[in-house]
Amino acid sequence: MKLQQLEYFMAVSKYASFTLASQKLHTSQPYLSTQLKELERELGASLILRDKKHCRLSPAGEVVAKRTEMIFALIKEAQEEINELVTQGSTTTIRIGTNLIDIDKAFGEVLLLFNQSYPYVSIDFKYYYDLETALETDLIDIGIGIFLDTSIPLEKELIYTESYLLCVNKNHPLAHADSVTIDEIRSLPFAAYSDQVYEKKVFKRWERKINWENRQIVIELPSLHLVLDMVQREKACSILPYSLTDELNRRNLVGIPLEDSPERAIYLVQNNHHGHCEAHRYLFEQLRYLF
């Protein structure tokens, strides 16, 4: 059974004429008759009673007409729901890029709330060292991170600015200090981010600014967790963002305010190469409160 056969059947039922139905359907009368005969053969019953001038539905035809109306109504309803999903962006993938390596947990919390409103949206979340180029070349729809030396005109929205803390093991001699100065930590060994981490640029600028380009970095690592592991093992201390305070406490590490510390400004940028669906706009709004 084909939907086209049911459509032909309903047209004959509506116009009570094979000739008029074929005209309305823009098909030939012989083809229309052939399709309806195949439908009757498949159902094992005569659906249309014919006379010289008119045709009418048989009792079986009345049943088929009633059920066909329900089928077409369900198809229309399904199409409307699909159109609504497309309008809302629920059948698309929203691509998000970041050059931060410490927002996985915060982003996960935002994503859980987002999925409650848009359960069928696919989110592609990736790290990009060059976030500007990823936006410019349409690799991502939303970018969140640090933008230094911006050479591409972007409409950035500042969502958070924070200072950094000195991170030490709870057994470190400075662990109970209320704050520390740069001079107090100049001789300490540090675990720092490696070249794969964009945020290293923040520290390089800061080191030049305070004339500390010979900072004693004993190891450079590509992830936050590896840096924290070094501090936990008392192999080094580190300088990390204030927003990681809860993570430091969870690991029994200590974050100490640092005078003249570096600062990072975090921006939210959206790709304006194409329109934004409702789901995109909703997610963008939620990311404003990521920190």
TrEMBL record:
GO-annotated molecular function: DNA binding; DNA-binding transcription factor activity
SUPFAM superfamilies given in the database record: Periplasmic binding protein-like II (SSF53850), Winged helix' DNA-binding domain (SSF46785)
CDD domains named among the record's database cross-references: PBP2_LTTR_substrate
KW DNA-binding (keyword) present: yes
Residue ranges of every copy of the HTH lysR-type domain listed in the record: 1-58
Any one Gene Ontology cellular component term annotated for this protein: protein-DNA complex
Keyword vocabulary terms for this entry: DNA-binding, Transcription, Transcription regulation
Family in the record: Belongs to the LysR transcriptional regulatory family.
Name of protein: Transcriptional regulator, LysR family
Source organism phylogeny: Bacteria, Bacillati, Bacillota, Bacilli, Lactobacillales
